[in-house]
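INFO  loader      accepted 1 record
INFO  loader      residues=318
INFO  predictor   begin
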Amino acid sequence: MEFIADEEFQHLSLASILKHSIAIIPKSSPKTFFFITLSFILPLSLTFLGYAYLIYHLVDHWHLDPSSFAKSQYFKYTLILFYQFLYLLFVFAFSLLSTSTSIFSVASIYTSNSTSFSSTISAIPSILPRLFCTFVWFSLLALVYNAVLYICAPVILLVLSETRSIEFCIAVFFALFSSFLLVHVYLMSVWQLASVVSVLEPTYGLGAMKRSRVLLHGKMMYASVLVLGYMFMWAMISLAFAVVVVHGEEYEIGLWVRILVGVVLVVVLVALNLVGLIAQNVFYFVCKSFHLESIDKSVLIGLLEGYVKVHVKVNSMA
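INFO  predictor   done
INFO  writer      dumping tokens
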């Protein structure tokens, strides 16, 4: 399958972006996407859902009280913190691997260049440092934003405690929540598009973040809907998993029902992550087309082949 013509991208609606993203999977290199899903996206999805199940049952089995830190429980709390570290490490690693392989594969399809799982794997060592640098800048921006939030929140709560107007408190809370959500969605939109820029353009890191902001101009509403849609679906899957699988025994839900629902939710989350990764690649081409920027496919092919050749050259010298 080939991508649609460049000039048609700017006319794609949100529904068309998702439809085109889904159509790429079975009609072009299905074997490649199958192995990417099996190797990276499935472990990422299992990590998301499995961590909540593990921690809940450890706390319940050990009868831990989060409000009490008895000396006899230090080891157990340390072990939970260790699991937390492993969880973040797995999410970070598989997120970067899923992102790098999906961007490389979709870009190869766009250029009508042959792609395979082996060539995609060969490109990872060259792509990961660029994505990592961009992720670091995103993390720094998110850290500054959260620091401001945590500093301002206690002050605002202190002011609210002095007023007896419930309407005023609700209005302030709604304003704070809306501001937090808007900034979070904006940062996520910039970072996701910057990840694609880091692979398909010469810049990465802070330069990719700035480039992403330029591309998002005029398409921020589309980006926000895509991010909010993903967040909503992810929240619904997590909620269903928590109620049925994690706490199912408390609601007297049968074991086989919990297992079946758990498997279905994992499959749904895998599909959501796969389509989401492809959609952010398609959205990059939509933004390029909207700004009347054409992509020289010969240059892009050279860039993609360069990622693979660097790996092959290093291996031949070893």
